[in-house]
């Protein structure tokens, strides 16, 4: 049975079925070809004439090729090839043929599939009953009489009858060999003709890059929102614990700040998790969530550090600062405050925050005295400054962070400049 597997094994049978399907799809084109040949030759003896049938077959193939240019031919062909040709699914392209090269390859495949399918189907339909009839000659007088009536007296000679079963079996084996060879040829051509074109690979790479960008953006949102909240809550809880017996009013304010911070963060966390739970890939509209600079007062009121906030212009006005820039600026301020909480002396050092709307850019400057050690230690460190730099770069802006010698002495300074428009958005 192993020797016969290439001819009658499961893969061979599926490929044979694939060819039969191709022959069935060829029939409408073949019938139109017979009409054209009949009109050209007067319609005499069309189905009894092998040259006329070959001419109809030749007329059908150009029509098949034209049909192959329709975009939906490729996904249908890919689905059939994946199920029946035994080709790894990763080697085949997904989706309709959109580019010229993809359409040319698809029509070449469609023509090859239907052409070989028509030949194999014709051989299967014609040769199978003939071979079985030949094999049955020694055992059926009715078959011998029908062959004599048809004028084939040679096949009823004693020597011919003795060889008839072997001849019929040889015909079936030859038919199986032809079908297996045609199926193997199609299977070898599938990755070339139905595989991804360079344009498909580029589009797939762009989709992967877009998906990675979305994941990175969501990771930054989670890091900045949750990281800031945990830092603020840890600081407020620690301060409240230290003065619990001496200053109940301070403890009350700290608990209120913890409540407001966690409530706000839970809402932001729900928004991000909602995006992650969606089946479809997030689009542009999905980025339109999250607080902007108009919600900055609430953040500063419960951030856990004293902030001297100055602003020039109206950064909270969406007509001045487009929403995407406003949201990213809010996250940058939030992460800057988280860095102050972690590294700025336990939240007791005052912070100076300036947000200024310039002619073409939004400027964010945050200064605080450098702390001696982190107030909130996180194993492995954080990604705060790197995340701020990534946010600024994605909008076409820039950021700087480090020690700064100002008029009040040495400070730690974070300066970020963002364009007032980003990703094609215009101020109204």
Summarize the structure.
With 428 residues, the protein is an alpha+beta fold.
Q: What multimeric state do the chains show?
A: single chain
Could you say what the CATH topology of the largest domain is called?
Answer: Heat Shock Protein 90
Q: What is the CATH-assigned architecture of the largest domain?
A: 2-Layer Sandwich
Q: In which range does the helix fraction lie?
A: 55-70%
What would you report as the Rg, rounded to the nearest angstrom? 38 Å
Provide the structure class: alpha+beta
Topology pattern, helix = H, strand = E: HHHHHHHHHHEHEEHEE
Main sheet summary: 5 strands, mixed
Count the domains.
Answer: 2
CATH class of the largest domain: Alpha Beta
The low-confidence parts are: 279-288, 373-382, 423-428
Figure out the total of helices.
Answer: 12
Mean pLDDT score, rounded?
Answer: 80
Spatial ordering of strands, largest sheet: 1-2-3-5-4
The CATH superfamily title of the largest domain: Histidine kinase-like ATPase, C-terminal domain
Q: Tell me how many strands there are.
A: 5
Strand content: 5-15%
The N- and C-terminal alpha carbons lie at a distance of: 77 Å
Keywords: ATP-binding, Kinase, Membrane, Nucleotide-binding, Phosphoprotein, Transferase, Transmembrane, Transmembrane helix, Two-component regulatory system
Protein name: histidine kinase
InterPro entries: HATPase_C_sf, Sensor_HK_TwoCompSys, Sig_transdc_His_kin_sub3_dim/P
EC number: 2.7.13.3
